[in-house]
Amino acid sequence: MRRRPWTILVTAVVLAAIGAGLGWYLGADHLDPVRGVVGSEKAPFFADRRVQEAFARHGLRVETDPRGSREMATTVPLGRYDFAFPGSEQAADRVRQARPATGSYAPFRSPLAVATFTPVADLLAAQGVARRAPEGHWVLDLTKLLELAHQDKRWDQLPGNVAYPARRDILLTTTHPGDSNSAAVYAWLALMRLGGGAGAVEQVVKLFADQGGLERSTEDPFEKYLAQGLNYAPLVLAYEAQYVDAALSGTLPLGATLVYLSPTTSSTHTVVAFDGRGGEVGRLLTTDPELVRLAAEHGFRTADESVFAPVLARVPAGGAALPTHLTDLVDSPDPGVVESLLTTLNQRLRS
Amino acid sequence: MKKTLALAVVLALAAGCTGKPEPNASEGPFKRGSGTLRVLAGSELTDLQPILEEAKAATGVTVKLTEIGTLDGIERVAAGTAGRDQDAIWFSSNRYLELHPDAAGRIDVSTKVANSPVVLGLRASVAKQLGWDKHRPTWSEIATAAGEGRFTYGMTNPAASNSGYSALVSVAAALAGTGRALTTNEITALTPRLQSFFAGQSLTAGSSGWLADAYVKRQAGDAPVDGLINYESVLLSVNAGKRLPEPLTVVYPADGVVTADYPLTLLAGASEQARTNYAAVADFLRRPSTQRKLMESTFRRPAVPGITLAKAFGPADGGLVELPFPSRYEAATALVTGFGDTLRKPARTIYLLDVSGSMKGARIKGLQTALLGLSGADTSLSGSLTRFNGREQVIMLPFSTTPKAPRRFDLPETGRQAVTGQIRGYVRGLAASGDTAIYEALVRGLDLARQLDAADPGRFTSVVLLTDGERTVGRTLAGFRSWHAKLPAKIKAIPVFTVLFGESHVGEMTQIATLSGGRTFDARSGSLTGVFKEIRGYQ
After folding, report:
1. How far apart are CA B4 and CA A348, in angstroms?
2. B303 to each of A220, B43, B401, how far by Cα in Å?
3. In terms of domains, do B250 and B132 share one?
4. What pLDDT is stored for residue B223 in this prediction?
5. CB-nearest partner of B303 from A17, A223, A230
6. Considering just the CA atoms, what is the radius of gyration of chain B in Å?
7. Would an 8 Å CB–CB cutoff place A167 in contact with chain B?
8. Is A223 helix (H, G, I), strand (E, B) or coil?
9. In chain A, which residue's Cα lies nearest the Cα of B307?
């Protein structure tokens, strides 16, 4: 008699379990998968169960493989995917050249930024390399940073440096520009800053060659920043979205802060659909209110500012909110210039 | 609240009944696959077997690890042959592979599973003596102390194993002190200081796991080694296993380390089933609960954020610095060949070769092919990194009814061709006939080692014993044992690497290897070439 509540509970649990199992059985798990190859920075978004459920409501089960946005046009077997989702319009162009597309969608943007730590930002501020924008967020003066890199300036040569007194050159930690969009955009920004030309290209090559071995996709170095902190690197190039996502899931390392590049460019993450089902994913990401809201929650800047602004406002970075409007934006680069730069970089780095 | 608790209890009970890992509610259900995921893996990953058992229970996928040296693995991936019988690769690092000009397009998705820096472990008393229990030395200080003979250490061969290669990259990058990735033309200037660092090395191996075991065995013998350069995970595991008379103090070099990140990597062209299996296993390995278990049971650091590091991980006073890996294949390779030809303590390699009657025909031909390969005939990547090195002393000692006259070859540092040509000529002249005096040959070989070492003590001496049958004449194993026991400590510690071949007596070959601190290698089903190349990592 006294055991009765237990029995009921057990029965309830078993029934609940069966119910859940049944729901799962009837749900997303038994839909044919729509396959996408996505820039690794978007892997957490696609792995989010709420995202999977939102797609399932439209009868889609989306499976994604994370790869570098630029690898998609070189070594990724595009034939097995319904869509590709690189980190920029230029990378999308390359994908479309590699395999004809049935449609393209631009559901959200995310500017490039640098994940770092408050003491490092302060140190760079003392050097005149970082400063506060009028709105309060940190910005990194690209010209000054490139000067330090050009002089082979090391962290341990900065006066009064107790934040990171390592015998390492002052460089952004990036991915490989031949594989990954974030590094490619950074290469292009640096080239523009250095005024183009052969000498400038040499300096850009050095920004990558001096770092040593490079990861293939943007989530890899960023995840090491999250898991290892300063033990990994003091300045890690990432998309703003990655930082926002980590901030909201409580996985930022102690003392983390975000510094925007100045000038910067906003990367438009672009869905390239190869068939109707891939197109459906692009369409839903652009129009489905739930998916748009979830993209904003993962830190991406959606078309509607009122959706992402409150999310950014929840992320403290360096004592100021992240900026809803970015200033000092340069237009997206000319595809021809970018391609020739990246071809050169790839040859020089992989010789 | 109570209800939730009870529910949790029931669920826990239910999970306990099936013995299956239960997905954490917030993480969603486990991804499922079926059948086997065939993975070419570094030997140091075998300690993940218990976790892979759990992965099987959770995902339905059996992960079948096939052990291979990092370098051989890279070669197979770059040549495109790995995909014939494997779906994925799993080494401690893909950095060298990713620099390989033929690697692009050979690998698909990759998932980082853990982290472990390559550091120095020292017997606590020695660390204290050097003051490194309180102060973190730089690689430069470590190199100086090693060069002055203030401590000895074991390290794997960079041409065979990633931990040795990472150590070589660390010390070279740190000594160069540029703050940038090392370039080919910077390596030469570092030669004297690197030579001084490697002068302290008194134990080598072709794999990190074997090195740790050999180190533990040596502590109990007459010729203990003070330190061990290896993954932090290996050093902490050795300490946790209480396998040493005194624990290792883990020394984190102040100017930086190179960290392994264990990328489970799908091979290009893998089947759809393999892709599904890969995704399920990768997902399981990165669950926070798995990551925590991985950290607690193997002492590797988690790859995913949000997991508090256990107390065992250092350094207590703060930062590690990640040193740059070479950014070009040429520089990465120049470091390895430079290590062999110029930087390392040169080797003295004694080959005891059975040329009894039973070796006639295909067997002696196989042996000749293997030795010709080491003398420069094998121009593959692994061939070029396992060939006889500059400054190496190679001794060929054939035996049948009795040991024959040994033939010694001294390779110069540069311009090896004349001497390798002589070796090739000698090898081609080997002919088979007569009985098998295994132990007479061993005695003769070790006697020779003793004489040579007295005249020239600064070498790594090792013996390779190849025989295709059992002893038929001369001394027995028991006779050899009592002779071996009377040897001076240094000679007793010369490892004998025995090759199982043809009708070798497995028991006796194993005993010889164990007795001398060597290892057996099995060539009964494969080719001698592969095994002779593998042994190069231990010489």
Report:
1. 60
2. 10, 20, 58
3. yes
4. 85
5. A223
6. 24
7. yes
8. helix
9. A227
Parallel, antiparallel, or unpaired for β B227-231 and B153-156? parallel
Q: What is the CA radius of gyration of chain A?
A: 22
Q: Where are the beta strands (DSSP E) in B1-146?
A: 35-41, 61-67, 88-90, 107-112, 114-123
Task: Let me know whether B55 and B148 are in one domain.
Answer: no
State the CB neighbour count (10 A cutoff) for residue B381.
17
CB contact under 8 A, B321 and A231: yes
CB nearest to A246's CB, from B10, B98, B305: B305
Calpha distance A163→A156 (Å, rounded): 10
CA separation for the pair B268, B251 (Å, rounded) = 39
The CA distance from A73 to A92, in Å, is 9
* Neighboring chain B residues of A350 at a CB cutoff of 8 Å: 101, 104, 329
Does the CB of A224 have a partner CB in chain B at under 8 Å?
Answer: yes
Is B494 found in the same domain as B397? Answer: yes
Domain total in chain B: 3
Tens digits of residue pLDDT in A181-230: 999 999 999 999 999 889 999 999 999 999 999 999 999 999 999 999 99
> What is the average per-residue pLDDT within B54-74?
93
Tell me: do B517 and B384 sit in the same domain. yes
Question: B15: which residues sit within 8 A by CB, 6+ positions away?
Answer: B21, B22
Q: What is the pLDDT of residues A21-34, one digit of tens each?
A: 444 444 556 688 99
Burial of B352 (0-12, 13-18, 19+ CB in 10 A): buried
Cα–Cα distance for residue pair B61/A171, rounded to 1 Å: 42
How many residues would you count in chain A?
Answer: 351
| Chains A & B: contacts with CB separation below 8 Å | 135
Confidence of residue A4 (pLDDT cuts 50, 70, 90): low
Of B181, B279, B305, the CB nearest to A212: B181
Q: Which of residues 201-220 of A touch B (CB under 8 A)?
A: 208-214, 216, 220
Q: Is residue B443 part of a domain?
A: yes
Asked if A152 has any chain B CB less than 8 Å from its own CB, the reply is yes
Distance from CA of B338 to the nearest CA of A (A): 19
Mutate to test the interface with B, among A214, A223, A350 (most CBs of B within 10 A): A350
Using a CB-CB cut-off of 8 Å, the residues of chain B touching A158 are none
| A29-109+269-313 placed in CATH 3.40.190.10 | yes
* Within a domain: B499: yes
Residues of B in contact with A226 (CB under 8 A): 304-306
B496-500, strands of its sheet edge to edge? B407-410, B393-399, B347-354, B460-467, B496-500, B519-522
**Distances, alpha carbon B460 to alpha carbons B201, B344, B443, in Å:** 9, 9, 18
Q: What are the structure tokens assigned to B497, written together?
A: 């690497």
In a domain, B180, yes or no: yes
Residue A171 and residue A228 in contact, taking contact as beta carbons nearer than 8 Å: no
pTM: 0.93
pLDDT(B12) > 50: no
Q: Domain for residue B270, yes or no?
A: yes
CATH architecture designation of domain A111-266+320-350? 3-Layer(aba) Sandwich (3.40)
Alpha helices in A80-218 (DSSP H): 89-98, 118-126, 142-150, 181-193, 197-209
State which residues form the domain around B132. 116-260
For residues B427 and B405, what is the distance between their CA atoms, to the nearest angstrom? 14
B42 phi, psi to nearest 5 deg? -70, 150
Cβ-based contacts of A252 with chain B (< 8 Å): 305
Gap from A304 CA to chain B (nearest CA, Å): 29
Work out the minimum CA distance from A168 to partner chain B, whole angstroms.
4
Q: How many CA atoms lie within 13 A of A113 on its CB side?
A: 27
Indicate where chain A has its CATH 3.40.190.10 domain(s): 29-109+269-313, 111-266+320-350
Which residues, in sequence order, are CB contacts of B252 under 8 Å at separation 6+?
A: B117, B119, B136, B314, B315, B320
